[in-house]
Amino acid sequence: MESIRFHVRKNDIVKVIAGKEKGKSGKILKVLPKKNRVLVEKVNFIKRHSRPTGRTRQGGIIQKEAPIHVSNVLLLCPKCNQGVRTGMRELENGKKNLVCKKCGELIERT
Ligand SMILES: [Zn+2]
Predict the structure, then answer these.
(1) Which of 1, 13, 52, 71 has its CA 20 to 30 A from that of 32?
(2) Residues 30 and 38 sit within 8 Å (Cβ to Cβ)
(3) How far apart are CA 98 and CA 38, in angstroms?
(4) Residue 84 CA, ligand 1 centroid: distance in Å
(5) Within a domain: 21
């Protein structure tokens, strides 16, 4: 199985750089590789009408995040406070870490 590599992954803090949610930032809740989309916390809320079913007795309107295209988000650099391009840098201990291409700050991932 070949896994598609994105520039972002789950739990990353990202900034939306395009689309109607531009300017918002949040944590990635889920990555959907097959759809090239990511689900970002509190971004791209959609209203959905839910019908009462056997499982959920209550119907009504629920708000839920909808996935957005992965190309619309960039990792948020805490120092630049904006979405930035990132690169990898080898540290002295041999480990590789993400760095902000703009300011050179290491970006820690959780
Ligand atoms: Zn930066």
Answers:
(1) 52
(2) yes
(3) 19
(4) 7
(5) yes
Q: What is the pLDDT of residues 12-60, one digit of tens each?
A: 999 999 999 999 999 999 999 999 999 999 999 988 887 777 666 667 8
Ligand 1 centre distance from Cα of residue 83 (Å): 8
Structure tokens at 66: 């909808």
Residue 4's contacts (CB-CB under 8 Å, 6 or more residues apart) are: 33, 36
Asked if residue 48 is part of any domain, the answer here is: yes
Against a cut of 0.70, is the pTM above it? Answer: yes
Residue 82 lies in a domain: no
**CATH code where residue 55 lies:** 2.30.30.30
User: Does the residue 42 lie in any domain?
Assistant: yes
Tell me how far the alpha carbon of residue 59 lies from the centroid of ligand 1, in angstroms: 45
CA distance 57 to 47: 18
- Centroid of ligand 1 to alpha carbon of 77 (angstroms): 5
